[in-house]
Amino acid sequence: MTDDATDDVTDDAHERALPGLPAPAPLGTSALPEGTYDGAVVLVTGGGTGLGKAIAAEFARLGADLVIASRKEDRLKAARDELAGLGGRVTAVPCDIRDPERVTEVFDAARQAYGLPGVLVNNAAANFPVPAEDMSPNAWRSVVDITLTGTFLMTREFARRHLAAGSPGSVINIGASYAWTGGPGFAHSAAAKAGVQSLVESLAVEWAPYGIQVNGLVPGLMPHQDMTADIRGNLDRAAPARGHEPDGPRRELDARQPALRVGAPRELGWAATFLASPYARFITGHTLVVDGANWQRRGLVSPEVVTVREQMGRGPFGE
Ligand SMILES: CCC/C=C/C(=O)SCCNC(=O)CCNC(=O)[C@H](O)C(C)(C)COP(=O)([O-])OP(=O)([O-])OC[C@H]1O[C@@H](n2cnc3c(N)ncnc32)[C@H](O)[C@@H]1OP(=O)([O-])[O-]
Ligand SMILES: NC(=O)C1=CN([C@@H]2O[C@H](COP(=O)(O)OP(=O)(O)OC[C@H]3O[C@@H](n4cnc5c(N)ncnc54)[C@H](OP(=O)(O)O)[C@@H]3O)[C@@H](O)[C@H]2O)C=CC1
């Protein structure tokens, strides 16, 4: 199982004047004891691609049985086969998390396969850059429905089943730092992620008495080969893949991070396996940011303002 940003992180470091943050430990290793998740069932939405697949992989390496759920069956099946190669059992369930009936079916399928999942990773989300004034009502609705409502529906179903069974559980919501800062050009996604962040804080308190933890986990820039064309296009604007393969290293992206490197997907996976582990039982309502301090970045001198329209190469509104 590959981890797209890995080689980039290691190979480029010696060519820079400053070292940046050290490269992560090798793919396939873990700080947690072998077998930490033996007998556990972990449900990851959007577990067939990108960061969701990387998170699922780290749970699988530690012994978990996996359930991955998203809309596109072909991608789910390919990921299932890849993840099964890590040793554990994997079930892929097609599901649109916006639909409460489909959400119920995912949990039924999981229960039938391995039992009620003890860990839910709400990773599925939707996003594309668009100036707010150009955003159609349906574009807004699609992103908010998938990212915020879908996360709520999955979390609600998870909690209802655990409350009925009297069993503990752990929820991890994958967020984005523009929940706090705002996200010009991503107004829909930033608003939805702010809602997801709020759910972490509300539900952690509401459900702690029942033994259910709810935490947030925020990735920094972690490029991977499954990125949508819209998101890839956005990275191209920041750092054209000149002279590189489209999925290959992009040194220009590294140079834009305080860490002088982008994140490797496994770094997010490791954080997820820690948050849901027996070593993090008193951590709830917390959001862990794995982004090399990029979200706190400020310059001594403010850069010139460039509108979202200009950044996206769009002419004046209405023309
Ligand atoms: C950057 C770092 C942070 C990263 C965070 C992430 O989340 S990365 C994770 C990123 N991963 C993902 O996002 C994965 C999942 N994403 C997806 O499946 C699609 O991107 C989806 C969100 C559009 C949902 O699909 P769907 O089948 O439910 O919907 P649909 O196709 O029917 O479109 C609905 C409406 O949206 C409109 N619209 C669409 N694109 C654009 C655009 N570029 N511009 C403007 N508008 C656009 C479209 O025209 C339509 O409006 P209309 O015309 O009816 O008024
Ligand atoms: N990559 C990055 O640098 C960053 C990512 N993030 C967050 O990390 C998470 C993963 O992002 P990333 O891996 O990059 O993105 P991907 O586009 O690879 O993953 C999104 C996943 O969500 C699934 N999905 C989308 N809509 C639905 C739906 N309606 N029902 C069920 N599943 C759905 C998709 O599968 P399918 O199409 O089959 O439904 C896909 O597997 C997201 O929450 C994102 O916001 C945050 C900051 C930075």
TrEMBL record:
Gene3D superfamilies: NAD(P)-binding Rossmann-like Domain. It comes from Streptomyces longisporoflavus. The keyword Phosphoprotein applies. Pfam families: adh_short_C2. Interacts with PEX5, probably required to target it into peroxisomes. Participates in chain elongation of fatty acids. Catalyzes the reduction of trans-2-enoyl-CoAs of varying chain lengths from 6:1 to 16:1, having maximum activity with 10:1 CoA. Has no 2,4-dienoyl-CoA reductase activity. Keywords: Fatty acid biosynthesis, Fatty acid metabolism, Lipid biosynthesis, Lipid metabolism, NADP, Oxidoreductase, Peroxisome, Phosphoprotein. Residues 40-199 form the Ketoreductase domain. This is Peroxisomal trans-2-enoyl-CoA reductase. SMART domains: PKS_KR (SM00822). It catalyses: (2E)-hexenoyl-CoA + NADPH + H(+) = hexanoyl-CoA + NADP(+); (2E)-octenoyl-CoA + NADPH + H(+) = octanoyl-CoA + NADP(+); (2E)-decenoyl-CoA + NADPH + H(+) = decanoyl-CoA + NADP(+); (2E)-tetradecenoyl-CoA + NADPH + H(+) = tetradecanoyl-CoA + NADP(+). It is found in: Peroxisome. Residues 1-10 have a biased composition (Acidic residues). Pathway: Lipid metabolism. Residues 1-30 are annotated as: Disordered.
